[in-house]
Write a structure and sequence with these properties.
The complex is a heterodimer. Chain A is mostly beta strands. Chain A is built from no helices and 11 strands. Chain A starts with a strand and ends with a strand. Classes of the chains: A mainly beta, B mainly beta.
Chain lengths: 112, 111
């Protein structure tokens, strides 16, 4: 049981490049979320999904896209990276009716 | 809107010292309250939680009591160890994936 996995662990991009951060969970959780963590700001919700085919925006969605075609996977896409997107990104999942989230190990992204 | 406020760090303590990290929340209704811990280079993991007023969550020697009258959920530990060095996040869950985190408090325990 791997829990929540994220790839890559580290990534450096140039301004304007695109990339996809991968997230997968093997706990059959309905809910999945993406957060960014910045110094002094805690975790801020980017997008979330309550099930396959259903996504919604969080607190800071601009510049990011998501889709949820399967229960297991919830990729986060940066279409045109900007230096303001330099951050640590965490994926989390939780079961239906549960208030506890399980976090992946994070992806540290630097945009030059 | 909902918010969580926790004391700013970093907090530096000697081994075996008493720890308190303050946390207050604002929310409509009665949210579940959490403390998550983040060890260096890792994701967050649940430390403890409480789901209703006067509940006490506890784990690994840490405790926190849900105080509705003061809207607080302070984290305490009687004797910290070097291995407790981490960042601690207070959070509240308002239902339907709506989790609000505090800004985190870094704890450093020195031998």
């Amino acid at each position: 049981n791997a829990g929540v996995t994220q790839t890559p662990k580290f990534q450096v991009l140039k301004t304007g490049q695109s990339m996809t951060l991968q997230c997968a969970q093997d706990m059959n959780h309905e809910y999945m979320s993406w957060y960014r963590q910045d110094p002094g700001m805690g975790l801020r919700l980017i997008h979330y999904s309550v099930g396959a085919g259903i996504t919604d925006q969080g607190e800071v969605p601009n510049g990011y896209n998501v889709s949820r075609s399967t229960t297991e996977d919830f990729p986060l896409r940066l279409l045109s990276a900007a230096p303001s997107q330099t951050s640590v990104y965490f994926c989390a999942s939780s079961g239906q009716g549960s208030d506890t989230q399980y976090f992946g190990p994070g992806t540290r992204l630097t945009v030059l | 809107g909902d918010s969580v406020t926790q004391m700013e760090g970093p907090v530096t303590l000697s081994e075996e010292a008493f720890l308190t990290i303050n946390c207050t929340y604002t929310a409509t209704g009665y949210p579940s309250l959490f403390w998550y811990v983040q060890y260096p280079g890792e994701g967050l993991q649940l430390l403890l939680k409480a789901t209703k007023a006067d509940d006490k969550g506890s784990n690994k020697g840490f405790e926190a009591t849900y105080r509705k009258e003061t809207t607080s959920f302070h984290l305490e530990k009687g004797s910290v160890q070097v291995s407790d060095s981490a960042v601690y996040f207070c959070a509240q869950y308002g239902g339907y994936q709506k989790v609000t985190f505090g800004t985190g408090t870094k704890l450093q325990v020195i031998p």
